[in-house]
Design a protein that fits this description.
Elements: E1 4-9, H1 13-24, E2 30-36, H2 40-44, E3 51-52, H3 55-59, E4 66-69, H4 74-85, E5 89-92, H5 100-112, E6 118-120, H6 128-139, E7 145-152, H7 159-162, H8 178-181, H9 184-194, E8 199-206, E9 215-223, E10 229-235, E11 243-249, E12 252-257, E13 261-267, H10 271-277, E14 287-293, H11 300-314, H12 325-341, E15 345-346, H13 351-367
Helix pairs in contact: 4-5, 5-13, 6-9, 9-12
Length: 368
C-alpha cells in the first residue's frame, strides 16, 4: 500500500473539515475514498466521492483502508469495533467512548485485531506549550509533584450551540456535557503530563447556565498516589474565562496560561531540604524565574491525521494511541459518579457501575 484510502463517518462540523483535508491532499499519502452520513442532504454535498448512509456498508465496500469516526459519541464504540473486526485502521474523535465499559470493549477489539492502527484525535498533544510542560515534568526539573491546578473555564457555549443538535447535552445522545464534549482534551493532557489520580471528589452542576440536563459546571478535587493533590475547574457558562495550568513540585513550579508563555520558577534549594535545614522562621527558598516563550499551536488535527497515515504506512509511533483515551473517559466518569453519589470515588472505577448509573439517567430523561 502506498496510499491510505480513508472513509469519514459523520460529516458534521468536525468531520467535514477533516474530510476536506483528505479530499484536498493536505494529508500526504492519503485520499478521501468515501463518506458516510445518515443525512441525505449532507451526502449530496459530497457527491464527488462514493457516499453511504450506513457505516457497515462503507466498511465492507472494499473502498476504504481506514475510517475516521466523527459521529455522536456513543457510535464511536460500535463503529470502531466493527471497523477493526473488518481489518480497517481507525482514527476516532474524542472521547473514544462515552464511558469506561465501552472504552474497554473498543480497546479489546483492537487487541483482537493488532494489525490495525488505532489512534485518537487528541490534537492538543501537538501543542508546543503542553509538549514542553510534559518534557519539564518528565525530566524531574520540578521534582516530585505536590499540587496540580487546572482552571479551564474558557469553553463558553451559548444556548444556541446546545440547540444546534438534538443529541447535544443529553444523557442519551452525548452521555454528558462539558466533561464529555469539551474537556476530554484537557483531561487527556492532565493525566498525560501529571499521571492519573487515585481518588476524585467532584461537584457537578447540571444545567446551571443552560437549559440542558447534563453538567455545565464542574469543580473536582484530585488525590494522587504520592499524596499530591489537585483541583480541576471547568464550565461552559463563563466568559471571558480562564485557561491556566499550574503544577507545583519540590523544586519549583510552572504556570502556562493562554498557551503563549510558560513561567517556570525554580527553587535554588528543594523546599523539603530548605524546610528541614533552615533556621529561619519565615524564610523560603530563593528562586529564579524563567519565561519560556511558545510560538504557534502545533499541527493540531492535521498533524494527528498525518501521524495516523504515517503509522499505517511506515509504522511510525502514534502521538495519541487510542488506548490512552480510556484515562480521560475514566476521569470524566469518576467526576460525574462522585457528584451523583455525593462522595469521593477511588480510581480505577468499575466501568459497569458507571454504565448502570448512566442508564438510570437516560431512563429518567425519557420519562421527562
Amino acid at each position: 500500500m502506498d496510499k491510505v484510502r480513508v472513509g469519514v463517518v459523520g460529516v458534521g462540523i468536525r468531520g467535514s473539515g477533516t474530510a476536506k483535508d483528505f479530499l484536498d491532499g493536505v494529508t500526504e499519502r492519503a485520499e478521501l475514498a468515501a463518506i458516510c452520513d445518515i443525512d441525505e442532504a449532507v451526502r449530496n454535498e459530497w457527491s464527488m466521492v462514493p457516499t453511504f448512509a450506513s457505516s457497515e456498508e462503507m466498511i465492507r465496500s472494499g473502498l476504504v483502508d481506514a475510517v475516521y469516526i466523527a459521529t455522536p459519541h456513543y457510535d464511536h464504540t460500535t463503529i470502531g469495533i466493527d471497523a477493526m473486526r473488518n481489518g480497517k485502521h481507525v482514527l476516532v474523535e474524542k472521547p473514544i467512548s462515552v464511558h469506561k465499559a465501552d472504552a474497554e470493549r473498543l480497546i479489546a477489539a483492537h487487541y483482537d485485531n493488532p494489525k490495525t492502527v488505532f489512534a485518537a484525535m487528541f490534537n492538543q498533544r501537538t501543542d508546543p506549550s503542553y509538549t514542553k510542560v510534559r518534557e519539564i515534568v518528565a525530566s524531574g526539573e520540578l521534582g516530585e509533584i505536590r499540587r496540580t491546578n487546572w482552571i479551564i473555564t474558557d469553553w463558553f457555549r451559548s444556548n444556541a450551540y446546545y440547540a444546534s443538535g438534538g443529541w447535544r447535552a443529553t444523557w442519551e445522545g452525548e452521555g454528558g456535557g462539558v466533561l464529555m464534549n469539551q474537556c476530554p482534551h484537557n483531561l487527556d493532557l492532565f493525566q498525560w503530563i501529571c499521571g492519573a489520580p487515585s481518588r476524585i471528589e467532584a461537584h457537578c452542576a447540571f444545567g446551571k447556565y443552560h437549559p440542558i440536563e447534563v453538567e455545565d459546571d464542574v469543580t473536582a478535587y484530585l488525590e494522587y498516589p504520592n499524596g499530591a493533590t489537585g483541583v480541576f475547574v471547568t464550565t461552559t457558562g463563563e466568559a471571558p474565562g480562564t485557561n491556566r495550568l499550574e503544577i507545583a513540585g519540590d523544586k519549583g513550579k510552572l504556570v502556562v496560561e493562554r498557551g503563549n508563555v510558560i513561567t517556570l520558577v525554580k527553587n535554588k534549594v528543594p523546599m523539603d531540604v530548605f524546610r528541614q535545614e533552615t533556621e529561619q522562621k519565615f524564610g523560603k527558598p530563593e528562586a529564579e524565574t524563567i519565561e519560556i516563550p511558545i510560538e504557534g499551536r502545533g499541527g493540531q488535527h492535521r498533524e494527528i491525521c498525518q501521524n495516523f497515515v504515517d503509522a499505517i504506512l511506515d509504522g511510525s509511533p502514534l502521538i495519541a494511541p487510542a488506548e490512552d483515551g480510556i484515562h480521560s473517559v475514566e476521569m470524566a466518569n469518576a467526576m460525574l459518579l462522585s457528584s451523583l453519589l455525593g462522595e469521593p470515588v477511588d480510581l480505577p472505577i468499575d466501568g459497569e457501575v458507571f454504565e448502570d448509573k448512566l442508564q438510570e439517567l437516560i431512563a429518567q430523561s425519557r420519562k421527562g
